[in-house]
Amino acid sequence: MVDLGLILHQGAYFRDLWNILDFIVVSGALVAFAFSGGSKGKDISTIKSLRVLRVLRPLKTIKRLPKLKAVFDCVVNSLKNVLNILIVYMLFMFIFAVVAVQLFKGKFFYCTDESKEFQRDCRGEYLVYEKNEVKAQKREWKKWAFHYDNVLWALLTLFTVSTGEGWPDVLRHSVDATYEDQGPRPGFRMEMSIFYVVYFVVFPFFFVNIFVALIIITFQEQGDKMMEEYSLEKNERACIDFAISAKPLTRHMPQNKQSFQYRMWQFVVSPPFEYTIMALIALNTIVLMMKFHGYSNTYEQVLKTFNIVFTSLFSLECILKIMAFGALNYFRDAWNVFDFVTVLGSITDIVVTEFWVSAKYGGLNVIPLQSIGGSVLSISVCH
């Protein structure tokens, strides 16, 4: 303060927020230290609580690290623009709360005896079997901890749902809800799950991404301000950065254009061939999704046949590419290695499932390795 002055002129001590933070921390520590004697009383305890301000001391390191200070300034500057988004957030939250009250008001009651659906029947005692003991407990008519009986409770419940903690229980209670002042019935209104799907899309996904985008935009704006002193524009800097970081893509091509390998290379790199492989991958993914509990033996055999057909086609793709690129050039590409390992795993699955496992364990299914990597092959095709 002696060197910079107090506050009146430009560059004074109290015109810097970091200096103000230092002053608050030091002042709080001095006041707490001055009353740290043997005095007792409620007021003295309150003054000693100022020692908590010492936890702010690590923030002083931000000022001395330029990169960390830039991040902190970005967060602070983005908070200035958060207000408008926060207003929209609360508006949408209020709308969902009102809708939730209309849908679930008075429908989150239940009886401790799950066999009783109405309050008039939730009386007396019922038997509870715990381990090897039988106990008699009193029936009670209760309300779930989170409910939608009014807008305030609806806001609290929706906020809890948006955190991702405990929301499956709230979803189950909503789906089981029947009528006002009546107990639940399992799966009574499954369509109520749509409400939570829409809510999750709007809040945990949409608004969270907006806040992240706001911070990113603030970073970019600060970067542009730092680069204003240079003569290059934003697009020119982007072009230079791209040129510096760009790496050439290498792709093998046979030198002899009259050879069989060159014609095979033309075939495997042609767009029709790649589109055909993508279509096969899409169909294979659909087949992998067609399994369900309780299917018949005929249905299982059809799926196995499809699996063998797709594995054969993908194996043929690997063989054609090895013939076109050569074994050495083929395995230089990580995506080709991934394709080869996936196909090899699928062949192993078919051999083990159809021959070794069926003969030894009577038809025990092995998890298809193709289901792990088969659908991911589309990434390598696009690549």
UniProtKB/TrEMBL annotation:
Highest taxon listed in the record's lineage: Eukaryota
Topological category with respect to the lipid bilayer: Multi-pass membrane protein
Gene3D superfamilies: 1.10.287.70, Voltage-gated potassium channels. Chain C
Assigned keywords, A-Z: Calcium, Calcium channel, Calcium transport, Cell membrane, Disulfide bond, Ion channel, Ion transport, Membrane, Phosphoprotein, Repeat, Transmembrane, Transmembrane helix, Transport, Voltage-gated channel
Domain Ion transport stretches: 6-224, 271-365
Coiled coil: none
GO BP, one annotated term: chemical synaptic transmission
The keyword Phosphoprotein is assigned to this record: yes
An annotated Gene Ontology molecular function: high voltage-gated calcium channel activity
Places the protein is found: Cell membrane
Record has Disulfide bond as a keyword: yes
Reaction equation(s) it catalyzes: Ca(2+)(in) = Ca(2+)(out)
Transmembrane segments: 17-35, 82-104, 194-219, 275-294, 306-331
This protein's GO CC annotations: neuronal cell body; synapse; voltage-gated calcium channel complex
PANTHER family associated with the record: VOLTAGE-DEPENDENT CALCIUM CHANNEL TYPE A SUBUNIT ALPHA-1 (PTHR45628), VOLTAGE-DEPENDENT P_Q-TYPE CALCIUM CHANNEL SUBUNIT ALPHA-1A (PTHR45628:SF3)
The name this protein goes by in its record: Ion transport domain-containing protein
Source species: Aquarana catesbeiana (American bullfrog)
